[in-house]
């Protein structure tokens, strides 16, 4: 064994774990790690805010399936990372945040920028740890990667006191490799029970959550659905798990991000096989309405998720990929392959008769028209990144997705500003892909400084801004209170000229005010981004008081007639 600087061992671990890009900001308390990075093949992207670094690592992790890495110095660098750690924990994204720290013998003396970041980060991480000895360095980082990937994936924070970073350790990278990650398989008995319930149901649905995407289980999901001809719905985090142009696609149920026909199909179902879904409140709405008249099978890699929101009729613990594969194998043993039956045809009928209109020619532009143009212009392999607000709800309702890891959204935590740094991470991971960030005007302003990062490193992507000059979701939420308070953002009230802002960063931008100009603007932005190797903005001025369709529970569907009881009783495999 050779004795080397312990931070060189850490960087060797990063490279061997498949990390080719890290995002961060150097500072005095983290410089030994940066000195080691400088000699390595790992690329470093200097962000403008530590939260932006965590979101960039998050975006990189979501599209690669690997562990993203963000680095900062001591004190406020770590506290700035907390939002990103929470976002990754909420959405089951594996990232590692690394912070510098004061020397061990100064931590009790209120040293400059010395804060107990481990205790601060503990509630929003799977593991938060401070390195105590240089000899531990490679092994703590190896374990961090294992923890981030294992079970329900999530974030880890490693705090590095400056005196520990300066130490040495015995390490030989030729003798070291990543720790194995357990992929838990469901018990055969639980698989048999699940398939039995699925095969007996008259109107079953499969609900694909984010765990299907994170678990790379889309192929297994499709095999099971096609063999049994069971319609498939997705949650917002599961968008892309099943192609939305497939005949068995059954839309999306929920109170915000939903399709009308998806809600209708869900209400007519009698059994739901939920895989890698956590039954978030924006999906379920009123649990009494959500559960009434149907049984539930819940498949999840994390045992404590089962029964957390409500008790299912059957719980199955296991990784989404082997669980779905085992169910497909069991189905082949139990039943013959099925043709398209009455239930699948009924779902197709709902899809044809309960669409939302998106072809408006109105001026100001109605938001659904923007998503129609996005759907029509961009190809199936485009990766979309979006965050939180009315534009996320419109995106979930109107935007079509066909492939896994092509629709990225900060789901449960919902931090404003997430989409620009996340898009940077996506493009760093897959420079060959077209990347589109769909943003709101206010969310964009939260982390607009990260545009400077994309400009500096020539990271090209398209930004489509839905600008209603309001805090749109809050304005809509205020309607029952009969007020419109503190939400106005238009130019005369402190608003920003986003076109001039982009130009100040050296990046092209264009404003669109009539729907007929949308297609040309998207074509221009796509070409300009690749030609200039820069982010390019298309700012779309939409109707100021446009509201997103949403309801208090799943039964908030208008102009919908459910199947009569006699029709519900027929054999779905007919």
TrEMBL record:
Domain Thiamine pyrophosphate enzyme N-terminal TPP-binding per the UniProt entry, residue ranges: 8-119
Domain Thiamine pyrophosphate enzyme central: 191-326
Stored Gene3D superfamilies: 3.40.50.970, TPP-binding domain
Residues annotated as domain Thiamine pyrophosphate enzyme TPP-binding: 388-540
One Gene Ontology term of the molecular function aspect: tartronate-semialdehyde synthase activity
Keyword Lyase applies: yes
Top EC group: lyase
SUPFAM superfamilies tied to this protein: DHS-like NAD/FAD-binding domain (SSF52467), Thiamin diphosphate-binding fold (THDP-binding) (SSF52518)
EC annotation from Swiss-Prot or TrEMBL: 4.1.1.47
Keywords associated with the record: Lyase, Thiamine pyrophosphate
NCBIfam families named among the record's database cross-references: PRK11269.1
Family: Belongs to the TPP enzyme family.
Name of this protein: Glyoxylate carboligase
